[in-house]
Amino acid sequence: MSTEALRIVWIYPDLLSTYGDRGNLLILAARAAARGIPVETYEVRSDQRMPNSADIYLIGGGEDGPQALASQRLIADGGLHQAIQQGASVLSICAGYQLLGHSFFAKGVQCAGLGLLDIHSDRGETRAVGELRGDIDPRLGLPPLTGFENHGGRTHLGQHAAPLARVTGGIGNDGQTEGAWAGKILGTYSHGPALARNPAIADLLLKWSTGADRLAPLDDTWSEKLRGERFAAAIPA
């Protein structure tokens, strides 16, 4: 890996890649390149070693079996843990979000997570499907969250994780909070892809990874149009 370019890793696309989550990789790379930031992207499959020297790691959603397998292999590999200890940023979506916690359920069986976020997940009485929106933790300085959720889990936060957002529509973690964050780790149930609907989150990851206080503005006309349409669709008639 280059030591000069911004390095972005998409974790296990062969196991965790639903609802266009690969779009998060494309959007991050495009927003970096548009600002003249050299970027290298890597798609690391589950039969490959996880590099521990990248700047941003992305984990997508997936079904129960692949989720459990991904967790087992990431625990055994250890590369993601090492990267986070060295200051890497992480964006995790849905199943990828759950497996960063202490435990989650897959096919009715409790599975060990990576323990990188102080959360644990179990099964809800109903499936959460539809538009998801919320007010993001003001400490992150971001506009409201928008996304699409489709999951059967309910996620509970410990004292060392903060909610990413307070739910204003949809279910998220439990109908009250959505996602979690700690340090440079973000987790959310938001598909869409998440960064297409929330480009400010992409820019937050870029700032964390480059050390920049500010980034040059981009023309987000189409992103704002999409956000407006999805927020309108989430409001009951």
Automatic annotation (TrEMBL):
The protein's Enzyme Commission number: 6.3.5.13, 3.5.1.2
Record field: catalytic activity: L-glutamine + H2O = L-glutamate + NH4(+); beta-D-GlcNAc-(1->4)-Mur2Ac(oyl-L-Ala-gamma-D-Glu-L-Lys-D-Ala-D-Ala)-di-trans,octa-cis-undecaprenyl diphosphate + L-glutamine + ATP + H2O = beta-D-GlcNAc-(1->4)-Mur2Ac(oyl-L-Ala-D-isoglutaminyl-L-Lys-D-Ala-D-Ala)-di-trans,octa-cis-undecaprenyl diphosphate + L-glutamate + ADP + phosphate + H(+)
Active-site residues annotated for this sequence: C94, H191
Binding site for substrate: R127
Domain of life, per lineage: Bacteria
Keywords: Cell shape, Cell wall biogenesis/degradation, Glutamine amidotransferase, Hydrolase, Ligase, Peptidoglycan synthesis
Pfam families associated with the record: GATase_3
Pathway noted in the entry: Cell wall biogenesis; peptidoglycan biosynthesis
InterPro entries assigned to the protein according to its UniProt record, in alphabetical order: Class_I_gatase-like, CobQ_GATase1, GATase_3, Lipid_II_synth_GatD
Xref: PROSITE patterns: GATASE_COBBQ
Ranges for domain CobB/CobQ-like glutamine amidotransferase: 7-198
Family: Belongs to the CobB/CobQ family. GatD subfamily.
Cited function: The lipid II isoglutaminyl synthase complex catalyzes the formation of alpha-D-isoglutamine in the cell wall lipid II stem peptide. The GatD subunit catalyzes the hydrolysis of glutamine to glutamate and ammonia. The resulting ammonia molecule is channeled to the active site of MurT.
Subunit structure: Forms a heterodimer with MurT.
This protein's name: Lipid II isoglutaminyl synthase (glutamine-hydrolyzing) subunit GatD
Upper lineage: Bacteria, Bacillati, Actinomycetota, Actinomycetes, Micromonosporales
